[in-house]
Amino acid sequence: MRTPIIAGNWKMNKTIAEAVALVKEMGPRLTAIAGVEKVVCPPFTALSAVKGAIGDAEIGLGAQNMYWEAKGAFTGEVSPVMLSGLCQYVILGHSERRQYFGETDDGVNRKIVAAFAHDLTPIVCVGESLAQREAGQTEEWVADQVQAALMGLPAEQVRQLIVAYEPIWAIGTGVPATADDADAVIAGTIRGALAEMYGHEVAQTVRVQYGGSVKPSNIVDFMARPDIDGALVGGASLKVDDFVELVRLTAETRR
Q1: What backbone phi and psi angles, to 5 degrees, belong to 252?
Q2: Predicted pLDDT at 175
Q3: Are 164 and 232 in contact (CB under 8 A)?
Q4: pLDDT at residue 170, rounded to an integer
């Protein structure tokens, strides 16, 4: 059984004080919910403070990005060495990083390799644009992203990572993919690409989330699909009641 994981990507939101207040309020309520892994991913500036605020609460901590080099003259970047011991997870290859900052599949692959080298668990984002979806290119595009991201990784590392399927056209738009659409891509395309590279058993071990306008009103539809192992949540993760409800409904659906 794959344990579902609900991860909140706070993006460029929350001051240090706001981030601490948010996690302190949600911490006890999330800890009371069993059967779901919970992760929050605040901005770099708040990582250390949020780690302290989490305390004994059952909440994992993740960064939103990192560079692949351990150190050097890379102004503005954060290295895996800086994150190691501070957090457990790191989001890599998010569509906003690809779209606004020119990240490539090769760069995402290098970051994944570096993350594992420093004991960080990657949350690897893949997904197609609206134009690609309408052109019938979803399967080819997403499979290529998966294969390029994981190139050269051993099976034992692939088992540990998390894939987040985030169709670009659904992120922040309020128009999510249907559960049928998401399940078809995750069960067929993503697990199919994993099986081609590593075999069926590994493909069934990897946890694959859905992300894109996830909210309490639609989470049950996604979690009712056995191939969808949780969600990478944007806006709803900034609201205590919504994020807790997402986790609670996931736990109830998978009970």
Answers
A1: -65, -40
A2: 75
A3: yes
A4: 83
Q: Is 200 a catalytic residue?
A: no
Amino acid identity at 115 = A
Question: Kind and range of the H or E element at 230?
Answer: strand 230-233
Selecting among 37, 94, 96, 128, the annotated active-site residue is 94
Give 183's contacts (C-beta < 8 A, 6+ positions apart). Answer: 225, 227, 228
Structural domains in the chain plus CATH codes: 5-253 (3.20.20.70)
22-31 as b/e, with b when 16 or more CB fall inside 10 Å? bbeebbebbe
Predicted model pTM: 0.97
User: CB count, 10 Å around CB of 219?
Assistant: 27
Q: Is 88 helix (H, G, I), strand (E, B) or coil?
A: coil
pLDDT greater at residue 1 or residue 232: 232
Active site residue 252: no
Model confidence band, residue 173 (pLDDT cutoffs 50, 70, 90): confident
User: Which residue is catalytic, options 37, 96, 128, 166?
Assistant: 166
Question: Is the Cβ–Cβ distance between 157 and 118 less than 8 Å?
Answer: no
